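Summary for the funding panel

The consortium committed to producing paired sequence-structure records for every protein in the target list. Below we show the first two records in order, beginning with the earlier of the two.
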Amino acid sequence: MPTSPDTPLYNSRIFDSYLKLLRKRYPNVDTQALLAHAGMKQHEVADPGHWFSQRQVNLFHDKLVQITGEPGIAREAGRYSASPDALGPLRSFFLGMVGPEYIFYLINRIAPRFTRSSRCSARKTGPREVELTVAFHEGVQENPRQCENRMGFFEAAFLLFDHDFPEIEHTECIFKGGEVCRYLIRWRPSASYRLLLAQRISTLLLIGGVLADLLYNHSVLGLPLLLGLLCYLGFTLLSRHIERKALLSSLTSMRSSSERLLSQVQENFDRALAINEIGQIISTRTELSDILSSVNQVLHKRLGYGRGTIYLLDPQRNILVLRGCFGLSPEDEEKLRRIEFPLAVGHPRGVVVTCFHTQQPVLVSDIEEIRGQAVPENFALASALGVRSFICAPIVCEGEALGVLAVDDATREEGLLQSDLNLIQGIAPVIGISVRNAMRLANERRLSEQLRKASEHLERRVAERTAELSQAYAELEFLYDSVSHDLRTPLRVIYGYGELLLEGYGQALDAPAREYLASIISGGERMEQTLDRMLDFSEVKSAQLSLETVDLSLMARRILAELRITAPDREVALEIQDGVLVTGDQRLLSGVMENLLGNAWKYSALKGCTRIAFGQKDGICYVSDNGEGFEMADAGKLFIPFQKLHDGSRFQGHGLGLSMVLRMLERMGGKVWGEGRPGEGATFYFTLPPAGTP
């Protein structure tokens, strides 16, 4: 992917060497102004994890040459990285190697730690000669001073091992029309190597002299042998002295590097342990307050941040409120709790609210930088608390912002760094997961409690309604019994005296009077039949069941044979399926079949040919006819007592038949429903336990 002038390409450790050189040899240079001109900040240069762009590097070099008046300062800074005062990044990488030549064999691994702008490769071209090639990535346009700085780094690699400056020949340069930058590096043997070589030569000469002395006259070679021995001892002592001095210098540097490395290892260990402990908190805590308190303790204990706060969204008030903190006195905590961060449009947005809305972390290296952006009251409180630099990281889960985590440490003179921001940015989503889980669990508990209360209320209402229904059923049964028994005698008196009046005095009455008496007698008889049906309807609920296997096919044939006797001249087509066996009460099943087949017979009487079918399919029994049928919109009224869907003048009935069918089937563990179309007939389906069911 092509890079742009604003792509981060160069590690801050390169420019840390520049600043150390300026403080050592150019103390009058205003480094703050230099960094500000290049768009760099002191804490960014001090942070090993920060990278700068080509635009910033160009501005930095141009300003640096201008204020120092030294065109070659870039190469000087490269060399200075090897000095003990700088203790630069090269020393920590290179001191563990045997010699400078091995550095170039690993250049392809070392270079990416300092630059992302190019690829470096090396090949050996002689006993003490190496060719280095730097190929730039697409879109990268360095400036010549970076090329000088790179050669300074090459020379620093030899200074680390007490070598003389190597001879560097820049055979191909991208700034002079080349495709790459190519460097041919030659070096002479080091002083220690030359002493070692002289020691070996003197040793050979001494051995040769001793052998010659043994073969010839001892007095002749005595003086040369003494001189050879003195040379050997001198070279040996000088070589050992130089070796001890180099070893002591190396050990001193390695000790400093080791201490820094151990400190970094301890810091990384604490960070890993903090993340692990936060993970354990998530898996073992369920209450939001416990989670936030434990997380704060881990951040304070493991990461060493002096103070920290956790602000979470309050859904009811649309603001951020303080939900947890560490490192604050009770008085300071109370002050912070009184601060609210409104999120609605129109309210001033400080750093915390901006971090929440943008879901982007913020590192403020100097609180004075945000004076104009911050809410004045909040800025005054932060200043009073001694906040100098701080980090805000959004607490996000599943893309939704839940709050903001803020930390600061007044004890750090250099302030918080990019590495701190990276750490907090990694911890904040973990906190977000725990907060979301705690909120969901709290919602589930609240919902469970609401459901429990609703269930208890519903159970009470059901019990009350059941009691009311039981009482209503009892009263209804009592009413049925009362009506059926108490009205029977007066009805019989009415139509009985009507019959006597018609028989004894019928001749004395005119035709209309006789017709009136006949209507009274007929109505009384129909009323008595209705009372009988009501009594049957009431008795269905309390009837004692005697479950057995019943052959509904035989029962259907018997009922239809009896119906045909009532209308012998009607044309009838019957389809009765054989072997329909169910488990039920014989008496109740007889009532079901009589009502269903009787309705089919009654409502198909006006057809030219009555067609009635009975059978069973997939365990469902059915009775169908080609009679009057009904609208499906009225199907809900079929089984309501005294509800009629057809004109009573055409089809007589009391309106209790299907309601009795429903009650009888429910008593036996079955159900019934109907389907029909006006003028095309109807089909009634019902289910019962199959034959053999206990």
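The next record, for a separate protein in the list, is shown here:
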Amino acid sequence: MKHQMGTMKINVTLFALLFMSFLLYGQEKPKTSKVLFEPGNISTKYVEYGATFTRDGSEMYFARSTQQWGKGDMKSTIYHAFFDGEKWSTPKIATFSGTYDDSDPHITPDNKTIYFISKRPSAENTISSDIWKVKRKSGGGWTEPERMPNPINSEKSEYSPCTDLEGNLYFASDRLGGYGQGDLYMVPNKEEGLKNPINMGDILNSETGEWNLGVSADGNTLLYEASQRKQNVSGYGDLYISFKRNDSWTIPQNIVELNTSGSDLCPFLAEHTEQLYFTSSDSLKSGDTNIYHVAFDAIRKKYEKTAEISLVSEKCLTNNAFEDRYASYSPDGEKILFESNRDGTWEIYLMDKNGQNTQQLTSTIADSRRPSWHPSGKKVLFESNRNGKQELFTYTLGNGKTKRLADKTIEGELLFASYSPKGDKIAVSLKQSEDKSHIILLNQKGKFLKKITNNEKRNYYPKWSSDGTEIIYFSRKDTNNQDDEIYRYNLKTDQHIRLTNWHKHNFCPSWSNDGKKIVYVTSMENTRPEIYIMDADGSNQIRVTNNSNGETLPFWHPKENKILVTAYRNGNYEICELELQN
């Protein structure tokens, strides 16, 4: 696995006094550095990891392996120890462990259940690490282990289950459909119990790996291991922290004080001592993998001050092994139009706003591309090379009829067409060569009306404002045909205003539904494109995405604060939806 590595009676009064005096089970309270936990007893020459404590601190469970950390598959066993008010007992193998590969124990805040992962056999005949649980018996001891049902478990591996006071279950998994190698998931504890896992989203998850995690009892602080991120101290796993604010998680921050050249993982927040317990294997200092602890309050306060809410959360609506691109919402926001090459050629498709019920609209041996909506929502405008060059066609949703829009006086290819809000005009790019294209206006039948741009450079991607008085587009007219910049054209005054001036490329603009904002794409040299938003006059330019794989082709929702994008994910383009935070 990845990075895997009868209750005693106590004197409550003595226990409380000792904890007020020592806080750390008889050890000196650390200030800023981590301290090895119970050396020689719990932290030994073997591999120990994944510590979890009861809320009163009287019991702990952890995983131990006699095999070497990071050297292939490692079999682990869960151990159990007691604190008698003065010292910890010698750990013993937990009654439910010792035969199979068990690890990542977590005792729930009510002390009644232990979740753990195991590769033990089950009725489902799984061979991956799954989440299991045992319940405390009324007379002491634990029930027989019970495997959690699918879809909490999957055909892939699950890691580090943990819970909050509400009984919500958190875990990591490398199951299919995630953002990267491994993702964090949460199962809400509803009236019917724990049922369906929810991916915790791209604020926490990334295209690399998110694994072993811990959550505070109130569910508002999350710590987890992330691997291979650019911010990492090591090439292995680093600990990150995030805080819940208004039901959104803050952008994860690397806990630089704790991370080493090795793996740092398996965080556990202990309320009874206000300590953070975690596992560390600093490969530069030693080969040991042990449990450490550190005072958490100073760490929490530091990172709370610098925590930031992401401007956007993302969910992908498609997840395929082919290309899905150029998506736009219907005028009522209920449908999504897009192009895809899933059948070998580019064709036009329609799906529900949640990505379900995909329907193919066009089917030819040539390409049909870059669809856009008629304002009625009953007709689609697209371009196709079925007659040897890019021309405009309409597709009527009611009867499936396709009609060519032609004007014999127009020489060149027609690209990136869009209807005016009234549907009586079409703005389109007329491509005459690789370095020369114009923005022109057509009537609804495809007849030429007017040339909007009049230069010998590239001018592309016209989009109408919601009131039909202005058009935005991108052009190279002022950059010697080198850099793309965004312009705003007023049909009444015939004026062009340059909105961006940023090396290297700014392109694919789209109006917000109220006309006050413009979303667009920026791409520097040797970087993938990212989504930006600016005011309609070009001010307040703000970056809203930050993904190494990039996004492009944004389209604003007609009613809500959401944006469709074409995102490069897992080797191909997918349709994703960005939801902007207010």
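Regarding this second record: The two ends are 40 Å apart (CA to CA). Residues 1-30 have pLDDT under 50 and may be disordered.
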